[in-house]
Recover the amino acids of this structure.
């Protein structure tokens, strides 16, 4: 089938694992890049072990996280520590435009696959290394996950209630930020290579790129010397601004009045017009000052109603509000459905596997996720025979060397 | 890296990071603001707490490497000038409510007639179409709709967001990737296209695939302060240290369990637990807990042992241990600790940016990646309102000073 997706001519050798790395090449695969993902036959990708699982059952392919990060890619197994891997990797490097890896620094050098060696094989190769803290510096070699990069980058301390220990954002927060920066860096480097003929090496610290999501708080310190702390759901510019209980167990609604006009319409919507005359609530600064009594008034109103009902009452009056959705809500949310956020893919061994679809809508050459994430070694034969053109003898030799697992 | 390309940045708070990413990578970004300045200039905090439109630190954080012009898009003269600028632009980034620009005949179809190669990027809360496209939005509301909010915070209180707004940053970063994918395609076809990014979809990535729990037939995750609740299992990530907190991935299974085993052996070595405890099967420990082979009360005892250990040491010492011994542990840092960290200092991360209008210079978060071929440079500090009107309108569009003055008097620039 002809492929007119934007990156249909781009070839990526992907040695990344867990979430931050694979989530970036997933984006590029959605846009049409051919991504050959290397997995170790000995050391399982952590993402394969993480929940949620299809059918709530742990299996080597049942992780929704792994499936979500690796859909659309070709998967081969290769033991990078086995000397027989060297020739295969070099052949794949010759085939590829881009090589990506997310091991802790020095792993690639130890295997003999660092940039200086790869560019001997292919001078204009683009290589991106992504790790928690970057390739250099006193703690460069720290291994770990996005939870750790988020904590050391200030995200945990800025999430939660001022009177409680930091709650932290959910999960491996920098793993949700850094994939976009990896992908845009790779695409910019491809354009640069197209114009100049030059490849390059890209050193990505997941911590450093993620710090841009705390930009205003960082400048508040470097400029004003002020150290921001976690503030629950309070916003310095808006009130009301909060998450309020609605009918049902652990059901909530987020409500934000952005202006005084929003506030007046809000009072009308909840049938409490008299509040607009209350001097405690006359302006944003005074509402912020009295936010506890204000939040109590709103909670008293909200807790008897359904979240969806409140959402409709407020949104029909132009007030920012949305029920707080869990997976069950989001899966049935009309906007998510309209945007085709959830896509059904056919997994070769597990049947139907539902994943998140591509995010941005391109009008002329849309992104598309074409296949489920590969099971371990699913595409060994295809990659070796069709992409690298190895003959049967050579493939048999590789199999018997044990390098494929 | 992207030197040949011109970006027109019409975006508001929702899209500022997108054009900044392109500008950081060398693109020529022209910010187009309404006369008086973009609303994002009103967002706190401010330099010296002075709410001046050129002193918003929110503005500073997301508008470097851009030049600023002002233009009133609500009147016909302004629209004509924008069309002139579009002729030689490669990207246009906008984040108005859906239909806002189309109503001014500046929608994608209008402008692609002027310049068929234009890549037109729209960033909104809920997307350009669909039942909620016209919903009023905000950071908190997007986080609520998109899935991450319910997962964050203390179990006995309302879900809680990150105290620094995030939603539109996720969307803007997605938009920058999409814009460059469209640029790559344009080299083949010569044609631009429209890109429609909905923040609500972008932030769903921050559920770590838990937005799929229902369709996969898996239980929803339940929020737990500093950790995560899976079924009856409470797994902390945040642990107390002598002088604050650390994050420790105390997890099991064939991948992460290896680290836990190493960590527990060390705790035994240091006398924090007996040998049998240190030598438990940390690979299979999760399965033992879920099958009931290991009672939850025993897991509680183990967590107390770990807590005793972390509480005994400073954050700095625990970080040192993690680096030396390969433990999955980092300190929970405050913003001042981040800015003053040895790691970021050693990598020369923070960039000093001159603000001649204030006779001062300030440290900004540095390049988001290190490119070996054409490194990111901070060429322009965030512009003051309309700072480059003359440069663009007279220097580029060939207006006379007199014409520019007249446009300014008529409220067009």
């Amino acid at each position: 089938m002809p492929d007119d997706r934007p990156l249909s001519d781009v070839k990526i050798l992907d040695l990344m694992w867990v979430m931050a790395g694979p989530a970036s090449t997933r984006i590029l695969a959605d846009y049409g890049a051919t991504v050959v993902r290397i997995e170790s036959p000995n050391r399982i990708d952590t993402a394969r072990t993480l929940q949620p699982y299809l059918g709530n059952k742990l299996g080597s392919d049942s992780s929704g996280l792994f499936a979500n990060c690796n859909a659309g890619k070709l998967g081969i197994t290769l033991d990078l520590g086995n000397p027989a891997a060297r020739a295969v990797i070099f052949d794949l490097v010759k085939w590829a435009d881009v090589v990506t890896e997310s091991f802790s620094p020095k792993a690639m050098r130890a295997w003999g696959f660092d940039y200086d060696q790869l560019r001997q094989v292919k001078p204009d190769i683009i290589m991106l290394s992504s790790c928690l803290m970057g390739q250099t510096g006193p703690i460069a070699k720290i291994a770990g996950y996005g939870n750790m990069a988020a904590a050391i980058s200030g995200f945990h301390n800025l999430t939660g209630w001022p009177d409680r220990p930091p709650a932290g954002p959910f999960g491996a927060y920098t793993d949700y930020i850094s994939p976009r920066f990896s992908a845009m860096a790779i695409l910019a480097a491809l354009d640069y290579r197209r114009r100049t003929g030059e490849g390059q090496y890209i050193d990505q610290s997941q911590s450093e790129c993620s710090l841009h999501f705390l930009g205003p708080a960082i400048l508040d310190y470097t400029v004003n010397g002020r150290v921001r702390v976690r503030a629950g759901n309070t916003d310095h510019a808006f009130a009301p601004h909060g998450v309020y209980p609605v009918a049902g167990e652990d059901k909530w609604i987020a409500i934000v009045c952005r202006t005084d006009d929003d506030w007046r319409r809000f009072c009308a919507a909840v049938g409490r017009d008299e509040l607009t005359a209350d001097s405690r609530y006359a302006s944003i600064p005074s509402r912020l000052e009295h936010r506890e009594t204000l939040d109590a008034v709103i909670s008293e109103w909200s807790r008897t109603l359904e979240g969806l009902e409140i959402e409709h009452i407020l949104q029909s009056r132009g007030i920012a509000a949305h029920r707080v959705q869990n997976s069950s809500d989001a899966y049935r949310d009309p906007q998510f459905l309209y945007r085709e956020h959830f896509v059904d893919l056919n997994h070769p061994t597990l049947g139907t596997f539902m994943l998140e679809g591509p995010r941005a809508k391109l009008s002329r050459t849309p992104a598309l996720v074409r296949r489920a994430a590969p099971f371990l070694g699913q595409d060994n034969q295809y990659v070796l025979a069709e992409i690298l053109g190895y003959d049967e003898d050579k493939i048999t030799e590789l199999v018997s060397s044990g390098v494929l697992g | 890296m992207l030197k040949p390309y011109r970006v027109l940045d019409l975006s508001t708070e929702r899209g500022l990071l997108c054009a900044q990413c392109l500008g950081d990578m060398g693109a020529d970004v022209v910010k187009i603001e309404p006369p008086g300045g973009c609303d994002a200039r009103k967002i706190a905090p401010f330099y010296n707490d002075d709410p001046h439109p050129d002193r918003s630190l929110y503005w500073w954080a997301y508008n470097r490497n851009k030049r600023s012009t002002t233009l009133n898009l609500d009147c016909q003269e302004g629209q004509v000038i924008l069309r002139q600028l579009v002729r030689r632009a490669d990207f246009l980034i906008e984040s108005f409510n859906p239909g806002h620009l189309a109503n001014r005949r500046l929608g994608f179809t209008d402008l692609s007639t002027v310049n068929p190669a234009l890549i037109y990027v729209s960033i909104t809360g809920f997307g350009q179409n669909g039942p909620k496209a016209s919903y009023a939005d905000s950071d908190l509301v997007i986080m609520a709709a998109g899935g991450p909010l319910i997962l964050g915070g203390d179990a006995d209180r309302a879900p809680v967001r990150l105290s620094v707004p995030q939603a539109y940053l996720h969307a803007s970063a997605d938009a920058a990737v999409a814009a460059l994918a469209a640029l790559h395609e344009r080299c083949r076809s010569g044609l631009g296209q429209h890109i429609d990014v909905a923040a609500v979809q972008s932030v769903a990535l921050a559920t770590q695939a838990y937005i799929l729990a229902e369709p996969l037939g898996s239980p929803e995750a339940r929020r737990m302060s500093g950790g995560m609740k899976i079924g009856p299992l409470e797994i902390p990530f945040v642990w107390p240290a002598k002088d604050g907190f650390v994050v420790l991935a105390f997890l099991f299974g064939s991948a992460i369990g290896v680290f836990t085993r190493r960590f527990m052996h060390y705790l035994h070595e240091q006398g924090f637990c007996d040998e049998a405890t240190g030598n438990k099967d940390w690979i299979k420990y999760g399965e033992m807990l879920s099958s009931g082979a290991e009672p939850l009360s025993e897991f509680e005892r183990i967590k107390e042992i770990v807590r005793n250990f972390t509480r005994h040491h400073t954050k700095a010492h625990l970080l040192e241990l993690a680096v030396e011994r390969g433990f999955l542990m980092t300190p929970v840092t405050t913003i001042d600790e981040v800015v003053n960290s040895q790691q970021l200092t050693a990598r020369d991360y923070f960039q000093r940016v001159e603000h001649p209008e204030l006779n001062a210079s300030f440290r900004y978060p540095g390049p988001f990646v290190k490119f070996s071929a054409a490194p990111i440079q901070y060429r322009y500090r965030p512009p003051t309102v309309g700072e480059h009107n003359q440069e663009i309108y007279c220097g580029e569009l060939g207006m006379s000073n007199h014409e520019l003055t007249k446009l300014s008097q008529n409220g067009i620039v």
User: Anything to note?
Assistant: Residues 167-189 of chain B form the longest helix (23 residues).
